[in-house]
Every structure is written in C-alpha cells, then in structure tokens.
Amino acid sequence: MDSFRRVCVLGLGYVGLPTAAVFAGAGLDVLGVDTEPRVVAAVGAGLPHFGEPDLDAAVRRAVEAGKLRAAAVPEPADAILIAVPTPLAGERAAPVPDISRVEAAARAAAPVLRAGTLVVVESTVPVGTTELVCRLLAALRPDLTFPHEAGEAAAVQVAHCPERVLPGRVLQEIVHNPRLIGGVTRRCAQRAAALYGIVVRGECRLTDSRTAELAKLAENAYRDVNVAFANELSLVCDRQGIDVRELIGLANLHPRVNILQPGPGVGGHCIAVDPWFIVATNPAEAQLIRAARLVNDAKPGFVVAQVRGRAAALGRPSGRPVIACLGLSYKRDVDDLRGSPAVEIVRRLAEERIGELLVVEPHVAAPPAELAAHGLELHDLDGAIARAEIVLLLVDHMAFLRVGREALREKVVIDTRGVW
Ligand code: SAJ
After folding, report:
1. Which residue, of 121, 244, 355, 398, is most buried by count of CB atoms within 10 Å of its CB?
2. Over pLDDT 90: what percentage of the chain?
C-alpha cells in the first residue's frame, strides 16, 4: 500500500495553490514552493495572491492547521508536483511552447529526490516533456534510476497528470473532475493514481505520459475549434444581416448540434495557448487547429472595426463619442486579465483614439499597465453608462446582466456576448 504523507508543490499559481490546499485539507503535510518571494510571503501568511471562490478559506485553514507551508526551495517529499506556467514564446503568428519553467522546477527538485519519490508534471506541456523531465533528472542525479531507462525497476517514478480545472470552479473541479494519470511506466501511473486517489472523487484513468500530454492539449484545442466555429458564424451573420444568437439557438434545436457562443475573442492562458503546442510540433497535420487559433485571434480586430464604424456613424464633430467599455477579464466573473481579448480591444481603441473610453471592471482594483499607459482609469458601472453614447459590453459579468433596458435607451449598444 502506497502511503503519501509529505507533498511538495512547485508553483503556487492558479493550479498549484488550490492543489496544495486540497492535499493539505486531506491531512497531508504540504510544502508550497514558488520563486516569487511575494507569493511565498502571502501563502505563508494564509493569503492567496489571486481570486478564486473558496480559496481564501481553504488556504487559511490549511496554514492555520500547520498542514500547508510555503518556501522558496523544495524539501524532500513522497511526491513532488510541478505546476508552473508553460506560456508561448516566439512570433505571434507561429508561437512555440516555452517549457523553461518546467525544466527549472525539475532542476530545483533534483537535489531533494530520493528512492521512492514520485514526480508529477501537472503543467500543460507538449508531447514528450514528461520523458524530457526524466532525462533531465537522470542527468542531475546519476545516483538514482529513472523510469525512461530503468522501466518498472526505477527508484523514482515520474508521471503526467494534467490539471483540467476551470478558473472560477477550481476547488470543486480538482476533486470531482475525472483525472488523467499518465505514467512513464505502468508503475509510475499506479503510484500517481494512489496519490490522486487521496483527494480525487472523479475517475482516475491510467494511461502513458505521452497520451496524457496530448489528451490535455486536445481538450483545449477542441474547445478553441468550437469557439472559433461560433466566432466565424458571427462574422457570416454580420455580413448576412442575421442575428447570430437566434441562429445558434435554432441550430442547437437539432439533437446532434451544440454550437458554442461567439464572443470578442478567446483569452486566458490555456485555450488560446495550448492549441499552439500541437501546431508547433505538427504544423502539417494540425491545419484545423491552427485555423481556429487565427479565427479567434482575429475576432478582437472585428470588434474594434465595429466600434470604429458605429462611432463614425454618430458623426460627432469632435469625432470622439464617449464609449463605456464593460469588462476587461478574459471571461465572466474572474479577475484574470491574462490574454484577455477585452484588454486588447480597449487598448486598440485607445491607440486609435476612437472615443473617450470609460473602462469598467468590478473584479480588479486598477487597470493593467498597458491601459494605464493610455491614461485610462476604472469607472463605476452606472456612472459610465449614464455618460456613454456607445456601450460596449466585452465580458458577461453577473454585475452587468442587471443593467436595465431603461439605462441603455438611446445608446448605441454593442453586446459582444449577447447577454442583453
Ligand atoms: N469562450 C467563448 N465562447 C464560449 C466559451 C468560451 O468565447 O462559448 C471564451 C471565453 O470567453 C474565454 C475563452 O473562451 O475567453 C476560454 O474560456 P473557457 O471557459 O472555455 O476556458 P478556460 O481557459 O477558462 O479553461 C480551460 C478549460 N478547458 C476546457 O474546458 C476544455 C479548463 O477545463 C482547463 O483546465 C483550462 O482551460 C486549462 O487550464 O487548461
């Protein structure tokens, strides 16, 4: 019977910190490790450094119980989880995965490995990265054996168990989602399944590390392709003078059709990123996945053109109508602005000096630097709508759904989410 008492989580971001809190909540001794001193200080004090429902209480409880600690460097543990970001690098038209943080985490973990340690890569990674981590660890620890060479007899086990949690529902989904357990060998997968079995209530499905790596990428590419289909339909409908929401509602009456919703573009650090991990290594095969990325990346430009056109049609002598821009985050009811199409749209409107922009984002305290650089500040919802001639809804936050028809009367409304 495998027993895991001590777990070390490398990377205390939106996956690593909730994961650390969940294992600590199950009674394990968890050390959270991060290279950012500010993150270590915050977590050590029981305070998450980003917003996520129920995370505050979970982290505070775990720290108060002495089950969760934070540090800058790893300590020996029964299991070491790597949950660091894997962003894109290179040119925007043909980006490539940057796995340098995974490599750095593996290098940081190497000195504390011992016979019996399980290493799990949770970060979303290109196919082959888990085996690459094995090779890297083996080079640094010639005194230990690793599964890519020693197979089932290896002293250290290595697996890929990709996170699949949806921001906004992370704590529930860590526990209740089915989990992919990709072992470099069968024994690696079995040990990882034993670890996740402590907290995961969903099915733990065992496979090899390469299949688990591609399955995770395929999930996000699937969603990206489906959103791209909806976004492409929105362009077709715009040209044909057809209401795309009505169209999708009608098409979805078909029992085997389920079209997603068009929006201002696809943002965040997963769906807009991970498909490129497939394209970068399979450029000839991944034509559809690449096309979907390009369709979704072009959508902010379409929204900017819409606003430009509607602003010009108002015919203000100053040429600059007041535009309320509602929402900056990459999706509803989160405070995450990374890769957000809303931020891109507002920045491009500011660069082109289209209108006087009143930005509203109830989930953050200050505008991001790229908007502050244009002198933009945050405004309150009611005041911004009252002053605006054009109301541009970019994110379907709950707070915006309550805006009454009365408040929007005689305004030009551009609702990129179709909620009004
Ligand atoms: N979006 C639309 N229309 C839709 C659905 C989404 O425009 O009908 C947009 C959103 O507004 C947002 C973007 O797509 O800008 C992505 O949002 P999302 O809610 O689809 O996904 P993420 O990026 O928050 O989280 C995804 C999830 N993956 C899948 O649903 C397949 C999550 O389970 C993953 O764990 C996460 O990526 C990740 O970390 O990889």
Report:
1. 121
2. 95
* CATH code of domain 219-415: 3.40.50.720
Evaluate whether 156 touches 173 at the Cβ level (below 8 Å). no
Tens-digit pLDDT profile for residues 152-205: 999 999 999 999 999 989 999 999 999 999 999 999 999 999 999 999 999 999
Distance of alpha carbon 155 from its chain centroid, rounded?
A: 34
Q: Residue 289: which of 229, 354, 350, 204 has the closest Cα?
A: 229
Q: Is the pLDDT of residue 2 over 80?
A: no
Torsion over CA: 282, 284, 287, 290 (sign): positive
Q: Is 164 in the pocket of ligand 1 (CB under 6 A)?
A: yes
Mean pLDDT of the chain: 96
Q: How far, in Å, CA of 126 to CA of 218, rounded?
A: 11
pLDDT surpasses 80 at 21:
yes
Give the 3-state secondary structure of residue 139.
Answer: helix
Six-digit token string for 128: 């082959």
Please classify residue 186 by burial: count the beta carbons closer than 10 Å to its beta carbon, then call 0-12 exposed, 13-18 middle and 19+ buried: middle
6-202 shares its CATH topology with 219-415 = yes
Q: Given a cut of 80, is residue 237 above it in pLDDT?
A: yes
C-alpha to C-alpha distance for 307 and 216, rounded to whole angstroms: 36
Contact call for residues 103 and 136 (beta carbons, < 8 A)? yes
- Beta-carbon-side half-sphere exposure of residue 89 (alpha carbons within 13 Å): 7
Q: Which CATH number applies to 6-202: 3.40.50.720, 3.40.50.2300, 1.10.150.170, 3.40.50.1820?
A: 3.40.50.720
Q: Pocket of ligand 1, candidates 15, 266, 326, 419: which has the most ligand atoms within 8 Å of its Cβ, to mutate?
A: 266
* pTM metric for this prediction: 0.95
Q: What is the mean pLDDT of residues 335-340?
A: 94
Query: Domains of the chain: which residue ranges?
Result: 6-202, 219-415
Spatial contact of 277 and 128, defined as CB atoms under 8 Å apart: no
Distance 307 CA to ligand 1 centre (A): 25
Rounded to whole angstroms, the Cα distance separating 341 from 301 reads 9
Tell me the CA–centroid distance for residue 271 and ligand 1, in Å.
6
Q: What residue owns the CA closest to ligand 1's atom 37?
A: 270
Furthest-apart CA atoms within the chain: distance in Å: 78
Residues in Cβ contact with 79 at an 8 Å cutoff, skipping those fewer than 6 apart: 4, 6, 7, 8, 117, 118, 119, 120, 195
The angle at the Cα of 343, spanning 416 to 50, to the nearest 5 degrees, equals 110
